[in-house]
Amino acid sequence: MPTMKSAKKRLRQNVKHNLRNRASRSALKTQIKGFLGVVKEGTVQEAEEKLRLTVKTLDKAASKGILHKKTANRKKSRLATKLNQIKAAAQQKS
């Protein structure tokens, strides 16, 4: 345990930030899983809307330092690729 006053304060801040980041990271994972679930169903319109919200969440996490910027970009790219795949499959059916 810290003994100095400033170290005690840093510990309190770290605990608070850890909880906030963990909640944010969990919400992000839930958002991504929701998008992947919609992609499995194959509804293009709903998937586009979910992707928009997921990209927004990823950008917010990257700006707050929860995710690295390049990690967020990589995830966005992979999710967009999945959307494009179901769009192509939907066009072939038509």
UniProtKB/TrEMBL annotation:
Presence of the UniProt keyword Ribonucleoprotein in the record: yes
Superkingdom assignment: Bacteria
Gene3D superfamilies tied to this protein: Ribosomal protein S20
UniProt-recorded name of the protein: Small ribosomal subunit protein bS20
Described purpose of this protein according to its UniProt entry: Binds directly to 16S ribosomal RNA.
Alphabetical keyword list: Ribonucleoprotein, Ribosomal protein, RNA-binding, rRNA-binding
GO cellular component: cytosol; small ribosomal subunit
GO biological process, one term: translation
InterPro entries to which the protein is assigned, alphabetical: Ribosomal_bS20, Ribosomal_bS20_sf
Family: Belongs to the bacterial ribosomal protein bS20 family.
Region (Disordered): 69-94
SUPFAM superfamilies: Ribosomal protein S20
GO molecular function, one term: small ribosomal subunit rRNA binding
Compositional bias ranges of the Basic residues kind: 69-79
